[in-house]
Design brief:
Elements (H helix, E strand, L loop, with lengths): L2 E2 H7 L5 H9 L3 E3 L2 E2 L5 E2 L5 E3 L2 E2 L9 E6 L30 E3 L7 E7 L2 H8 L7 E8 L4 H9 L1 E3 L2 E3 L3 E8 L2 E8 L6 H8 L3 E10 L2 E2 L9 E3 L2 H8 L4
Parallel strand pairs: 9-15
Antiparallel strand pairs: 1-4, 2-3, 2-5, 5-6, 7-9, 7-17, 8-9, 10-14, 10-15, 11-12, 13-14, 15-16
Helix pairs in contact: 1-2
């Protein structure tokens, strides 16, 4: 992952971000042997020098946990009456600053939520340019057709915003109820429900089962969490496009 040079310098204790911007403008910062310019981004692979000294930032260990969020739980740090919030299910829940949510799920949606202790990593996972796809299991009521499938894949304008699935797979059907597996690469609010409603299908159950390369473990009970391994974190770092 990359970050702006002035942020890297500030993290190393060289000065404030604004002060570091001025140091870059003054030509006092070298990146890979060349005088840096404002707007330069760096990663752990780059060699950064300030006044002829190599600058290193001690990287904090990235932690990542997967939560199987139950229905009826808010994806929020703000408590509304007595409704439970996702942070009630996390370790060290009293200090919510320990965990940053990577995306959200609405109160009636269950399934996989990821939390990290690293804000840069969280932004990387959520940034639209990295195209992390999300997979959901959906149970919907109504008549489905190939025409509706095509519309949902091509994109439907809802309130002036285009919504679409990258993939739709039909599953078991019981009467007017049918299961679907759907994928999309954006995290717009209630996007899955809105797309089904746009083709006259009513969602009765919605569960996220994958975020990028991370699947919801089949053994992870609702309301429980699991810390992800270094290999899984590495998979996420390599996943962004």
């Amino acid at each position: 992952m990359t970050e702006r040079l002035q942020k890297f310098l500030a993290s190393a204790g060289i000065g404030s971000r604004r002060g570091c911007e001025q140091l870059i403008k003054d030509g006092r910062v070298i990146v890979n042997g060349k005088v840096a310019e404002l707007g330069t981004t760096v990663s752990e692979k780059d060699i950064v020098e300030f006044d002829n000294k190599i600058i290193q930032v001690k990287q904090s260990e990235i932690k990542l946990i997967a939560l199987n969020k139950p229905e009826g739980v808010l994806s929020s740090s703000a408590r509304d009456k007595k409704i439970p919030i996702v942070y009630d299910y996390l370790p060290n829940s009293r200090n919510q600053r320990n965990w940053i949510s990577i995306g959200r799920l609405d109160i009636n949606t269950s399934g996989l939520m990821l939390f990290t202790n690293d804000g840069v990593f969280a932004n990387y996972c959520m940034h639209p340019s990295n195209q992390f796809d999300r997979e959901y299991l959906v149970r919907a009521f109504g008549e489905f057709s190939k025409d509706k499938e095509l519309r949902m894949k091509q994109g439907i304008s809802i309130d002036g915003v285009i919504h679409k699935f990258s993939d739709i797979v039909e599953g078991e059907k019981t009467g007017a109820n049918q299961w679907f597996s759907v994928c999309l690469t954006s995290g717009k609010n209630k996007e899955v429900r809105k797309l089904f409603e746009a083709v006259d299908l009513t969602v009765s159950r919605l569960k996220r089962v994958r975020y990028g390369p991370i699947f919801l473990p089949s053994t992870l009970a609702e309301g429980k969490f699991r810390e992800l391994t270094e290999n899984e974190i590495s998979d996420i770092k390599q996943y962004g496009k």
